[in-house]
Structure formats: structure tokens, C-alpha cells
Sequence to fold (1046 residues):
Amino acid sequence: MIGGTARMIVRFGDLLANVAHRHPEAPAVTFLGRTRTWTDIHTRCRNIAAAFEGMGLEPGERVAYLGFNSDALFELFFAPAMARLETVAMNFRWSLQECIAALEDTAPRVLVFDAAHAEQAMAAAAASPSITHLFQTEGAAPMGAEPFEDLVRRDGCPSTEGSGGDDTLIIFFTGGTTGHSKGVMISHANMLTNALGAPPIMRNQLERAQIIIGPMFHMAPGSRIFSAVLLNAHSVIMPKFDMVEMMQLVARHRVHAVTMVPTMMHMLLEHPEFSRHDLSSLGPIMLGGSPTPPALLERALEAFPGALFSNGYGMTEMSNLIAALTPEYHVLEGPMAGKLQSVGRPVPYLDVRIVDADDHELPRGEIGEIVARGPTVMKGYLNRPEETAEALRGGWFHTGDMGWFDQDGLLTISGRLKDMIITGGENVYPTEVEDALTAHQAVSQVAVIGVPDPKWGEAVHAIVILADGADANADDLIAHCRTRIAGYKVPRGITFRTEPMPLSGANKVLKTELRKPFLEDGD
Amino acid sequence: MIGGTARMIVRFGDLLANVAHRHPEAPAVTFLGRTRTWTDIHTRCRNIAAAFEGMGLEPGERVAYLGFNSDALFELFFAPAMARLETVAMNFRWSLQECIAALEDTAPRVLVFDAAHAEQAMAAAAASPSITHLFQTEGAAPMGAEPFEDLVRRDGCPSTEGSGGDDTLIIFFTGGTTGHSKGVMISHANMLTNALGAPPIMRNQLERAQIIIGPMFHMAPGSRIFSAVLLNAHSVIMPKFDMVEMMQLVARHRVHAVTMVPTMMHMLLEHPEFSRHDLSSLGPIMLGGSPTPPALLERALEAFPGALFSNGYGMTEMSNLIAALTPEYHVLEGPMAGKLQSVGRPVPYLDVRIVDADDHELPRGEIGEIVARGPTVMKGYLNRPEETAEALRGGWFHTGDMGWFDQDGLLTISGRLKDMIITGGENVYPTEVEDALTAHQAVSQVAVIGVPDPKWGEAVHAIVILADGADANADDLIAHCRTRIAGYKVPRGITFRTEPMPLSGANKVLKTELRKPFLEDGD
Fold:
């Protein structure tokens, strides 16, 4: 007999049950050659939820995961909610101290980890009194921990209908390109809105495969797991990114959708094995993290004639997507061309505006901070009421990103508010300087930062990676900049670099790292 | 300075403000040759909301509208919510007594009406003590009423941020094909989910025009007004349906999207002026209310080579869409063909199942009642806690429709539970008998009902409209049925009819009307 209580609110546990009911034998997750159907996943999640209850976990308590992408993490995106618990997605790149701080902050009862992070997890857990249960996903669990499969073994059914609506579904952490990582509380309703609203913008179709190549502990890849239950999509999950393996998986599973940064697309097209794999199943290819260079788009359009490219701008605190440049702008000619530097229009359910430092709205064309409001704004930062109030002041989420709207309503990102350089009282947006330098043929990559300067407060400084075989010195590049941007924006100094730029987990250049050598005490 | 309080929940007032901010000069509504931009509409709605507050209306009080479609009704879908009031959408086909009953049920403070319904509105208001203010949309208002434009005249700003989330946004009434009309409370969150989830299924694009030809007081056309603020769509509103005017408007405004019943598509293709109008802008054409006959699809595909046809199944209590047969099934050949009798797959955010009279789930292929749960289930029936509890028993909304799932997960509707005929203890679904009769070449339209029978309890009876110039008597048709369906399903009697079938406002055959002559006391 069907049962339960009236369910007018969204519960991701229900959505998982829906798809299992609708497509019981369809593949839900493939990981390391192992495929689980929606029935498998739903049954396993129900068992895990019941096991958590059996261990005495109370509604609102938390389950944390530390490790590479895995099908276990997929399950931990749903199972805790089915027992009214909250998921904590930890960053496997954190230091031990950072792990301990996150465990102190979120106070989980359970920590699940993979074999590669067992040592780190056990060490962090030893310093974290909230933790009562430890599980390792694969391989022999260390002393004090149990195999994750023990959670699944016994058939069970959670006693509650699960959390939903405005209850916290999951805690993701901010990328931490500036300052500490903050826990971001995302509700079921937050995530439903993104999961319903974002896929049509990228033109994702129902019942197709998607490949997850980025770390699921970050919002951008993680949110695609939640939209998979609405798209009835098959998620092919890579533990870590590997180009050849990605090509093989796309070909083997006829993968439809993928998200990657433009640099990765560049590496893909350059890869010696590129032409050996059948990647023709790819439809919506979402680029993001930075604009798509026109030359790259040209090559990509040729290499993927059946694909639909888009470029997105998202943020953890906004349950992912804020704006997207849709496929019709991914052309090289005609009236829609020439917009590739922008992130496109805000998603229709959000109000996105540009404001000055006093939160006064700025007219179109002027650069200011990007603020947004709507149903995907996070519930708040965990345990940080003051930072929450500050971020949400005036009723708007303050992204910390600078940007401007053009006359067509397309949004262009100008850089991070915190990356803005103030030199001699003038504001300099690093992006503008980076664009000027990138236009020099000898420059392959560039990052512009502000460094302490006794006279100007801050001075504009560029870190440059030259193109293969190219030759240019600092004077050449500075002279080039003088012809393109105002004098106060021209770099006072240039550092040449041969190793790659330091990147965050979200593949953003870590300017804090680049700035460190210039700070007197290494602060 | 931007302001307000944190807005993590959806408010349709905010969504209207968003689109006005994003596309200030874009057309929002065209009605009787008059076009209002999103700025116009937003400003007018804000003024109307402030005027309602100025009149002393308190949060949770109601504003009702009685009349044909209009741009005033468009505004009344948003303005009340901006003052935390609720909209009541009255059916202009109601008798005076029905209007009075609805006003007693909803107890609005304000009644807005158009000139064509002024007499009915004033008479109903005279019997409705809750009403303190009356407004007529156009023309000279009768004594005791004021011009609707008076509400708009003064610049104002409501003192609140408006209702949102689980607050009631609007009360629509059920079609009332069986029994009385019930008020259905729909929340902002209900409507957001449909407005985000339904358009991609029909392949609606952003920033295009839609034409509203059905009565907006019904959920199916009404819900498209709410999705318009997310699609940034231009709504071209017809006061009443007129085929020639529709063709002119589609051509003039390059209309992209339209919803109509298959019969209307048939009339359109048959219309002598059809080829004289440029209807090539039509993209997504949503049919609904009944399956699309293959012969009609064949003609429609030829007449609209650029269109994408779909067929939807919706319901007032489900904030509209429950399932949809998507464009790829609207073909005449190939593996996707042959599904036109179905309404397709449930929308991905709903759990839809088939149950028997005891609410036990039935296996695929078996006919039973269609039940659904998910975030678009209504808050409840207004003032009818027992009927609400009955409809939502066990946590599922009971549609009252019978249907079955095929092996591909496509849903086919078999008729209304209340239309089911029980004859000699056997269940007969009228649709099955109707399909058998329709297969006879002499039959143009048919409706099968149960009529009282002293021996069998009920007897199967068919009302038949013959095709033009066709000739067949009852014996011919009964003999035809005997070769196709079981004996107990074969009609015991046939009534031939020359006038059209009586239709509800939602263009469904009113079987209650057809049954009346057979009931002894005309009950």
C-alpha cells in the first residue's frame, strides 16, 4: 500500500525514490567500472539511512565525507537526508589542520573516507570529539573504522520521511581562494531550484549520461549529482581527472553532458589521443571558471560539430548557477558573436545587480560588485552569523565578484573584489591588465596582483608564463601595456614563471599564493 | 540603495521585479492592441498593491476577478501577492448562484470585473457581505463600483516584501466536470516548480511571445502567466477565443508558443483563411485535454514544419503539468511513433503511480487511479478539510483519473474514475468503448456514459455524432462493437446527436450534462 504523509515540499530522498520507481533498471552511477542502477542506489541509500538511525544519530546531526569522488559519495548526497541528517562535503586537498577545523566547525557524528585519505581522516578524527563512527569506502579499514559496506548490508527503512524544503540538505565549503573556507548551508529547496532551472539553460536532455570530472565536494560538480535525479541521468564518476580515461569513458558510455574549464578543453583538443576516441555523443558542453577564448571555441566547434557549448558563472552560496552564456552566443560570426568574454544572462529566477561600495545600484556599463537574490541563495554560513549577515546585507547576497552588464543584459566578470588593486587611490581591476597582457603574442598565461608598495600603497604586478618558444622581457610587455591601458594600470613589475599557476580545487588561480612572496612576513 | 530583507524563498512579486529590471522596455502583455512593457506592468502592480493596502486590506485577505481574459487579470495575478493578499480567479461561465457561492467560499474584500460581466458581478456582490470594494476594468463603472485605473493612478509602494514560499498565491477553481467547483490553494513554491519545470519539457525558449487563448481563470492557461516571468515571455492575451484573430495575432507578434486542444488544431487547419496568415513563428505547440489523433498530427506536421508538438496532462490541484508526451514522440514513423494515445512521462519532479481502490500500487500495464506527489501538489481545497484529507489520503494526491503505464513508462489516461461504469459488477472504462466506436468510419464524435438500469445497475450508453454525410444506425454500431470489445462493454443503447457535445471551460465533454436526460428526476 502506498503511504507516507502529504508531500507538498521537495525532499531529495523522494526524488531519488521517484527515479528508482520510474527507471528501476536504468544505470544511475558508474564508478571504476562498476555500475549501479537506480534501484540499487535507492535501496542502498535507504539501508544507509536506516543504519545511521540505528547508530543513534538524531535529526540535524551530520555525516562527513573526505576523499576522492566515488559512488559512495554519490550515496552520501542522499542517504543522510533520508534520515533527516546533513551531509558535509570535505575538501581532500585540505591540510590536516584544515580538516580538523572543518570537523570542529561541523561536528559530524560520522566520517566516511576513502583509502587514499585514511591516514588524514584518522588523524583528523582523533582530534575531533564529535565523531563516534568511522567508515572506509574500499579496502581494509584501519583500526577503529569499519567498512562502508557494513552500512549497506542490512535491509532497513528509515523511520522518518526524511528532511526537505528549507531543511539543510548539504554543507559545501567555499573555494577559499581568499581567506578561510566557510561552510555553506544549502537547503533542499535551494538545490531543487538550481536542479530544475540550470539544466535547460545548458540544454541537458533527460535520461542521458553525464561525466563528473571535477571534485564533487565543490558545488559546481556536486550540484550535478542532485540534478541527475531530475534528469534521470546516468552519472559516470571519475575519482580524479585523467584525460585519457575521460575520453575512454565518454566513448564507452555515450556521455551526453560534461562540464570543464576552458583550459581542460584546450588540453583535450591538444591531446595526442584525441582523434582516437569517439566523443560524438557529447551534446551540452558547459565551460566555466573563465571565459572561452575565441580561438579555442573555433577549434572546439570544429572538433565537436554536434555539441552545444555554454559558459557558466556559479557560486557555492548560490546553489551553483548565477548566469550562463547560452549556446547561441557560442558562434564566431553573426549578430550573436563577440560575447564570449561575458558569462551571459542571469538565470531567470534570480535578480542580479551591480552595486557600488555603498550598495547603490550602478547603471549598465559600470563596474561594481555583483549581488543577487532569489530562491537559490544559501541558508547561511555555518556557525558564522556575522559573516552571513554581512554577505546578505540589505537582503542581497554579495558575491565579492566585480562585474558589469552590457546593453544586451549580458554580465561580464571583472575580477574579485578582494583582488582589486588600489594604487595611488585608483582602482585597478586585474582582469583589465591581464587582458592587455594576454593580447601580446608572447604571453601564454598571466595573473595580475597587487603587491605592497611604500609610495602607492599597492603596486600592479604581473606574473607571466610565456608561450612555448616565445621571447619577451619585462620592458617589452610594459611597453605593450602602455599602448593599451592607462598609465596607473600598467604593471610596475613583472615576474616570469615557468611552472604552471597554482590553482584552487575549482581551478581558479590562487592569487593569494602568488602574492605570498611579496608580503614581508609571508602572511 | 538596494534594500529589503534576505530573500531565500520565491516571491512572484520579486520575479516580476526581476524581469522588469532586466528587460524594462520589452513587451510584457499585449491585449486588444495595447502593449505594456515589463516596467509598465511592474509599476502598475506595485501601485495596485499599495492601493489595496491603502484601502485597509490585511495580509491573507483576497481579491477576486470575474471576467474575460484581460491585461488587468494579468496584473491581478501578481499585484495582490505584492501586498500579501491572495488572488481568486472566478469562472465567467458560472451562474449567478455559482458566483455567489464562490464569493461566500473565498470571502474576498475586492471584486474586479469587466464590462461584460458587470451585471453578474454587481448582483453577486450584493449578496456577498465580505466585499467592500468593486472595480470595473474598462468603460463606465456602475454605481457603487470604481474604475480599475483608479487603483493604478497613484504612485505607491507596498509596505511589505509580499507573500512567498508556502503562502497562498492564487486560488483557482476545479473544472467541475463532476460535482461542484472547489477552490484550490496554490502556493508560490507550487507555482515556481511548475513554472521552472514545465517550459523546458515543451521546449519553450526565453524572451519569445506566447499567445493565451484559453480562459486564464483555469490553471492550464493561467499557469503560463506565471511562467512568463521566468521565460521573460511576451504574453499576447485574447479576451475570448476567435480563430481569425488568433491567426492575425500570431503573425503580427511572431508568436512562439501556444497551447490548444486537438479539436482547435483541427479547426485551425480546416479554416478557409489558414493559408493566408504567416504562422511560421510557432515553435512549441502544446496540445492537451485529449490525445492527438495520428491523422491530425500528420496534417499538423506538414502545416507547421518548424513546430515542436507536445501533448500534456495537467490538473488544477497539481499546479498544472503532471505528464507530457514530448516532441520526439510526435512522429508518424520510427521507434518513437505509435505513442500518441499516451500523455507521455510524468514530469521529473513528480512521483506518479497507479493504484487500486484500496491504494495498493498496481503493476505496469494495469489500469487504476492515477496518484501523484511532489512539490506541485496544492496546499489544499479552500475551506474543505475533509475533501482535502480525502484527496491527499496516504500522502498522495488522488487525481480521480484512471490510467496505466506502458513498458516504456508512458502514461495513458483511461477516463475519469467517476465516469467509470459499473454494469452487472463489471468495470467498463468509457474510453475503451469510445475508441471502439471511433474506429467506425461513420462516427465523428462519441461520448460513452453509464445510465441507470434496473437489471444491471448501470448500462453502457453511447452518444454519437455521425460524420458529415455518413449513415449508420444503432444496430450497425453495436454490431461493430461486438467484434472489438467484450459483450458487457458493448453499448445497450445509442443516442444520435447533431449538435456539438457540451464542453466544460477546459474543453472537456461534460458527461454530467449528457447523463442528465437519463436520470429520473433530472438530478
In short: The first helix of chain A runs from residue 12 to 22. Chain A has a mean pLDDT of 92.
